[in-house]
Specification:
925 residues, alpha+beta, nine-stranded antiparallel beta sheet
Length: 925
């Protein structure tokens, strides 16, 4: 038995892992919302890391200021060090103070001033804090400009640190009503701006914007007249606003940082990017060259795996930033590498036209990159791999073990997104080191840190690395002239010639569905006049013919299984028609009505000769249909029939349209089950039952918004290319099957799943069944002898995962069903169906459109609760025995009184005469 490693080894490993996790977080986290996480979670996680590292590794915590971390975390470290100055060891005080001062000078002025003002809010007013504030303000190159642009910050800091401000700065800040003129031109223009409109346009833009809004100055006039004094960053930021106001705001992209140019390029419409392709390409190349001049990096043969999946679109606070970082990294590597190739998750002919779309499949481009035999593979992704999950790490592990045991090719994962639940950028797996990244131009810095993330470098080497970075930072600022700033620092400064500036209703609402009369009569009458081909046979089971299931995406307790269609056709298209008022009363004819929550309808367009549908999307949906009764029912949307053919004009493309109410078509059939009164007037039944039957028949369901995590799961779901449907599981229970005919239709209708209704058991499952497990497929490395073997193993993993998910949907897929044809439209048949009611199995009802060859073109199902199944089975038993209570009780092997109690317990007590029911309840008490 080998001897146990010394305790010091374990301690050093833990310390190294702590520091690497913290520095990685400081590279990526900005406290802003990410695609998969809120800003609140980001702040809580990064604050915990700061407190932990500050309390345990204070010296290294201070030296992290020089590690190339982002501005957000530099400011946080500076504030935390100043706020806890009493805890600084005596031998570290001088270095710590110098590092804080140097870091503040490198921050953009607005962030540095905001950080120093936080000291006041935290009531930190020790001698060192006051000295840092005094030295920072004294070292600013233009105090008058700071007093105007950052007036509130400078004033608060002057009061807090008891500063004597030079020249006219004090009177300007503390005498707002002063009438005497100032000698400083900018201060005088700021004073005049209180009453002179012309003076507004000579002030920094952020100040001018506030004054212009208060004085009613038009936005276009402000942009036009303030343009000469705008910084390049402001010009870039205001391009869209200038376009709206028809103002020509010239911008020099060649002076902007790499990531900012990438963000600007991605913000343009595709047509504009195509027209300005050469200009944008040249600007990105120049920005990459400038970044390399500041931080040189010489690389050999480099391949980049770049994530352009839907999650790369970022959040509302960091819009398109992950994709912009990937684009910037691609240009930087192209400039730094001897040989370079980019492999995007979805191939694109031109990087300038790249967009965030599709699922995260990193394994396929990683295999393509490895086949090119590079020296280094750099993967730029947020780490949320889902096609399939963990595949890239498995590919890297097997590649290392079987095909590259000498580690000729290095693989590094660059992650621009902070995962608050893991306190670090999300890793792809233990076989691929992960480092965070805020801006693409910082890539050389994080690549130098990657060896520590890999875990091979000891703690002593990490300490020496941070010490060298700290010494370099202090030396750089020791050489800088007083009052100046480092050339190339990412902060807003002075430009030459002027100052610089830097229907859904409710939540867990119950819905009642009321049905009166027989179902589907009007729809069947409408079918008689249609031009028909041979009708497809009624469904005997719901089959996913023409569809292929693939690996699921999991969010909390929700699992979404994509259904892909390899060869979609264009002769049937589906669009949504939204209703302003979701409460609907549906007239089904012959005095019958169905009342429920109907947020939208689906409009189906088709052709009978297989040619593409001429119009789809909004054009297909058309205007909302109305009914004359709507004038009589305020607040209620009155619709005519569950399924209605809409004939507009003589053009077949206009006439072949069908409006249907999704889910409600099937639910109406369920509510109409044995709805009519008993044919024999048995004495045990009430007069109401004899005359009106089950009227009103009511069932209750839940809004999709009531199910925890469903809305977020739909928001973050990455739609596959070719996806035409989804299997929706909640708490590992099949909630719904949704299929449409065309991928574009599914993309438009995906979010409507939140507007569907669901049975009540799913609420309990979502709350108490815990998070669904992510299926991770392990590749047997013994079977791998080449990259082709890895590709085959990846294909098998996807096929096995899809087959497993279809098997778990056996409650409706492949199970015998009873179907009813509702409408025939050319080669298509609209049917509604219900599974056999078996209390031991999952039971579903739904509607489907089937092509004459059996291909499923549309389907939507509803999971029945156990109570709904019991009620339906009870009605079936009663109707099957002619509503004879004695015969029904004998068939169920219970007494007549027990049957009456059961009828009352299921909510049908109103069917039984009052005296008969009371006597039965008394006898079975």
């Amino acid at each position: 038995m080998p001897p146990a490693p010394p305790a010091r080894f374990h301690t050093e490993r833990v310390e190294r892992e702590d520091l690497v996790m913290f520095i990685n977080a400081c590279f990526a986290c900005t406290g802003q919302a990410e695609f998969y996480g809120s800003s609140g979670g980001q702040v809580v996680s990064v604050d915990f890391l700061h407190e932990y590292i500050l309390g345990n590794y204070r010296r290294l915590y201070a030296r992290t200021l020089a590690a190339g971390i982002n501005h957000f975390n530099q400011a946080r470290i500076a504030v935390n060090l100043l706020a806890t100055g009493a805890e600084t060891p005596a031998e570290d005080r001088r270095e710590e103070g110098l590092l804080v001062a140097a870091a503040l000078r490198e921050l953009p002025p607005q962030r540095a001033l905001r950080a120093l003002r936080e000291l006041r809010e935290r009531r930190v007013n020790n001698r060192r804090a006051r000295a840092v504030i005094r030295d920072y303000l004294a070292g600013r190159p233009d105090p008058a400009f700071d007093a105007v642009k950052y007036r509130a910050h400078v004033r608060a800091l002057a009061v807090h640190a008891h500063l004597r401000l030079p020249g006219e700065i004090g009177p300007f800040l503390f005498e707002p009503g002063r009438r005497a003129p100032f000698e400083a031109p900018l201060l005088e223009r700021a004073r005049q701006a209180r009453y002179a409109k012309e003076a507004i346009f000579d002030l920094p833009l952020t100040v001018a914007e506030g004054l212009a809004a208060a004085r009613g100055v038009a936005r276009d006039e402000l942009l036009r007249r303030a343009a000469p004094r705008m910084t390049e960053g402001e010009r870039l930021r205001l391009q869209r606003a200038a376009g709206r106001e028809d103002v020509d705001l010239a911008v020099d992209l060649g002076r902007a940082p790499l990531t900012r140019v990438a963000l600007y390029a991605l913000s343009l419409p595709e047509a504009a990017r195509r027209d300005r392709r050469d200009e944008l390409h040249a600007a990105l190349e120049r920005a990459a060259a400038r970044a390399l001049r500041r931080s040189p990096a010489a690389l050999g043969r480099v391949a980049a795996v770049l994530d352009r999946s839907y999650s790369a679109s970022g959040s509302s606070e960091k819009r398109r930033r992950p994709l912009a970082v990937a684009l910037g990294v691609s240009y930087l590597l192209r400039a730094a590498a001897g040989e370079y190739r980019a492999f995007w998750t979805a191939p694109t002919p031109d990087e300038i036209l790249v967009g965030a779309r599709g699922q995260t499949d990193l394994a396929t481009p990683l295999l393509d990159a490895l086949a090119w035999r590079p020296d280094v593979v750099i993967v730029v992704s947020d780490g949320f791999e889902n096609d399939p999950a963990g595949a890239a790490a498995e590919v890297a592990r097997c590649f290392r073990a079987r095909l590259d045991p000498g580690q000729r090719t290095s693989i590094v994962h660059i992650n621009p997104v902070f995962d608050s639940e893991r306190y670090a950028p999300r890793a792809l797996g233990p076989s691929i080191p992960t480092v965070g990244l805020r801006d693409a131009e910082d890539l050389p810095t994080v690549l130098g840190f990657a060896r520590f993330a890999e875990g091979t470098a000891p703690l002593a080497e990490l300490e020496r690395y941070l010490a060298r970075r700290a010494d370099a930072l202090l030396a750089r600022h020791a050489r800088a002239p007083a009052g100046g700033r480092r050339r190339g620092a990412r902060q807003k400064g002075r430009r030459r010639g002027g100052p610089a500036e830097g229907r859904r209703r409710g939540g867990a609402c119950g819905r009642g569905a009321r049905r009166g009369g027989a179902c589907g009569r009007g729809a069947r009458r409408g079918a008689r006049g249609a031009l028909m081909a041979k009708a497809p046979a009624l469904l005997r089971s719901l089959s996913l013919r023409g569809l292929t299931a693939t690996h699921a995406q999991v969010f909390a307790g929700v699992r979404l299984v994509p259904l892909l269609r390899s060869a979609p056709r264009d002769d049937l298209r589906i669009a949504r028609r939204r209703y302003d008022d979701p409460t609907a009363l549906v007239d089904v004819g012959e005095g019958s009505a169905y009342c429920s929550y109907v947020p939208h309808a689906l409009v189906v367009g088709w052709t009978e000769d297989g040619s593409p549908v001429a119009s789809y999307g909004a054009a297909l949906a058309g205007p909302a249909d109305r009914h004359p009764l709507a004038k009589l029912c305020r607040g209620v949307n009155v619709l005519h029939r569950m399924v209605r053919r809409e004939a507009r004009g003589e053009d077949p493309a206009e006439r072949n349209r069908l409006r249907l109410l999704p889910q409600h078509l099937a639910m109406e059939g369920f509510l109409a089950l044995h709805f009519d009164a008993p044919e024999i007037a048995w004495s045990e039944y009430s007069r109401r039952a004899i005359s009106r039957g089950l009227d009103p028949r009511t069932e209750v369901s839940l809004s999709g918004r009531a199910i925890p995590s469903l809305e977020d799961a739909l928001r973050v779901f990455e739609i596959h290319e070719g996806q035409c449907g989804v299997l929706l599981f909640v708490g590992e229970l099949l909630a719904s099957v949704f299929v449409v005919s065309h991928p574009d239709d599914y993309r438009a209708l995906h979010r409507t799943l939140i507007e569907d209704f669901y049975e009540e058991t799913l609420l309990y499952a979502a709350r108490h069944h815990g998070d669904s497990q992510v299926l991770v497929h392990t590749i047997d490395e013994a079977e791998i002898g080449s990259l082709d073997d890895l590709r085959a193993a990846l294909r098998r993993a996807r096929a096995e995962a899809g087959a497993l998910h279809v098997d778990t949907a056996a409650g409706v897929i492949g199970r015998p069903i009873a179907a009813e044809r509702v409408y025939r439209a050319g080669p298509f048949s609209l049917q509604r169906f219900m599974t056999e009611l078996d209390p031991a199995l999952d039971n579903h009802l739904g509607e489907a459109i089937v092509r004459d060859d059996g291909t499923l073109e549309y389907a939507k199902t509803f999971r029945l609760s156990a109570g709904q199944v019991r009620r339906a089975r009870l009605l079936q038993q009663l109707a099957g025995h002619g509503w004879n209570l004695d015969a029904t009780a004998a068939a169920l092997r219970i007494t007549r009184d027990q049957l009456l109690r059961r009828i009352d317990g299921e909510g049908f007590g109103y069917l039984i005469a009052e005296h008969v029911l009371k006597a039965a309840l008394k006898r079975t008490r």
